[in-house]
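As the next step, I selected for study a record pairing a protein sequence with its backbone structure tokens, which the following lines show:
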Amino acid sequence: MSLDTETMLEYENQMFLEILQEDGLLISAKGLRMETILLNLIKVYCDPGNLVLVFGTTHEEEQFFISELDKQGVTPLPRVITADNSTTEREGIYLGGGVMFISSRILVVDLLKKRVPVPNITGFIVFRAHRILESCQEAFALRLYRQGNKTGFVKAFSTTPQAFTVGFAQVDRIMKTLFVCNLYLWPRFHAIVISSLEKRKPVVVELHLELTHLMTNVQTAILELVHFCIKEIKRLNPSLDAENITVENALSKSFHKMLMMQLDPIWHQLSSKTKQLLSDLKTIRSLLQNLTESDSVTFYSMLNKLRTSDYVMSSSGWLLLDEAELLFSAAKKRLYDAKKEVEPEPNPKWEALSEILKEIHKNSKGSVVTVVVLVNDSSTVLQLKRYLTKGAVCMLEELYKKLIDSKKSKLSFSTSDNNTDEEMKEDEIDEEEKAPESVTLTQTQQILNDDDDDDENDNGDKCKSDNATFMECSQEQLDKQTEPVVVLQQFKADGNNLSLPLTLRSLQPKYIIMYDVNMTAIRQIECYQSVDCIEQITLYFLMYGSSVEEQGYLTTLRKEKEAFEFLIKEKATMVISSDQDGKSEDCSSLSRDAGQSAASAGIVNSRKGGVQKPLGLSKVIVDMREFRSELPALLHRRGIDIDPVTLLVGDYILSPDMCVERKSINDLIGSLSSGRLYTQVLSMTRYYSKPILLIEFDQNKPFVLQGRYYLSSDIGSGDITAKLQLLTIHFPKLRIVWSPNPYATAQLFHELKEGKEEPDSAVAAAVGAEGDTVDDDYRLEKYNVGIQDFVRKLPGINTKNIISLLNKGQSLDHLITLSQDELNGILDNSLNAMLLYNALHQKTSVSTKDGSNNSGKRGFGNRGRRRGSRGRLFSTRVCV
């Protein structure tokens, strides 16, 4: 069903008119049909006379907008620009006008290469504007746009108000980055929103269920354990800002992310006990969520995995508390009755769901109805599918049997405590059936009445006694819809935020059951009732009263309300500079301070040797793949011109003789382990007299190389240091530079370039190609970057032959079928062909604990070899 733009709600019309007339940042509460505003805004600019660029949208959202506009007969439809479009095609698309969805990385490169007619750009539409500071390329693109276009618009949108309350002056910084002066706030408690949604409301039936006695005991024990972990973290770290570290906030799904953001900068200073407490806290919180979402068998199996000697020794000690014993005892009692007989406790929501379906069937009076049951994740979809098709008893019995040790395949567990704790195996549950994201069921027979239920139970058929009246529905049956249909679906199927509105418009259900609680879904249903649904919807709302589920939902509502109240106060006191929109020539936000100020004054440093020239003419050649990082944008802001080129050697070319290979900590570890760094440094020293290895740290983490926080489980900081020492021994010309963050790196590059001759793009692109003509974007555009990185790590592959292999090798499956002679024809080197052939066809064995290695595998970390073999050790490791 296509959206009707003429039937927008009153608040939607107001939001649309505000953002259409004046540029600004529009922050809306979740679930208020932001997609409608964007759709109509895009529709306005779908004209060849405009050039509007949209970024921040997902692939699903782009397809949604295009399909909806196509249904409305809009032409020309928006285009999606990807790396599959060549540079020539992209230039033609830009000149053709219209609306275009584009990634920020491609747009930045095209802006720097002058492929985009910047003066002709009508404007930018930015979705998920709260990420503008994190997504450095989007901010870079807007900056380049404003420098060359003073008339176009910028319209930004976000549905995450909490993101604007974290950090100092966050909303002010984001607005400056977006070059907008107006802030539009639309919370759910806005008077116009309330009046718009009150006109046609769904009938809401709230069912507050009670947790069973044993579930209450489990919940109480888990909350006490959460309190224990939080109290210990605060005790061990008295200097920590613990205002938001509370048990209530721990119920939020974003709690761990918030906590790690606070602890990342001081992680290396935390004790091992604190780190283990954080890990245990995450584990305990997952148990809290699974208590209400999982069945009793699966929950006990998950819990039982923690009752091992290894975990007890490594944990922070919570398993030794009385609350932990209460937790295990109550979870176990949910499986066994007083006589130690197997009798798993059913989920209370199952019975409530069955009663609702019976009531719907009774009220439908024989008519065909569609019921949509909304759940939180795919595991719950599978759980309810099993329950509705098999019944609770049969379902739990099957799960119980699947969790028994395969060597002791019995129908029930041993009644002794020593055996039950060792026989549960969680990972066997879903081997036969993977959790789907959406399931459609149809009723196979009339739901039994109470008398029939009693008769069925008297016959002893327990598996058929409770709700086993549904079967999975085929698409053909769904199209005919001759029987009642029940659709089980996640709130965000396939991770698509628009999946629920699309499902509602497609199925037009009269009944909706919210099995799990979700604030966004509730509002989406409200909007659907107000705009798209002709009939009155009945919404059943299932929730455990006085539970963590209810408290988590209320906390989500409270946090959103507080975020909007904070933004309302910020808006009232916010000071907006007259040039914040970037449309004036003297806008301070657009100044390229370090370079332009010196160039405009004609200042040069007479003490520096080399070529004397104004700093404003500085240029750095940057490899295409480096535009995922923040550094190119920071270099440009410092007054250094950026020239994107596909480089075969190095990442940054500062001068004709100065080449930089940039590595993050993770890249450094991987490159040292694989031997790739040796090949890269070898190429740099071959073609440049001043090769530099830049090791750049995360600006949100400490500037140290210690502890296992940065390192993988099989490598330590001592190994990294030893390999770096070995690297400098083999390459005396190599200079290693350490940088705490990209800002320091930009300043360092600026200082290194002073008085140096500028690099030549054509020369830099040809380095390493050895006579091959390499277009700037050829390899980046034709081949996926991830594939290039993977192929480059194969033995025998280097910068000389990778282009030939990518051109002539169809796929990895194709390479395996080639003989060694055929690989020699592709790589033009018999040794490399032999290495690649052996790697693809020979098996290798893992080193034993005593140091022996059946495969002869060598690496930087093999310290026991004689000194005379070190040089050979490097070259061998690259090829293994």
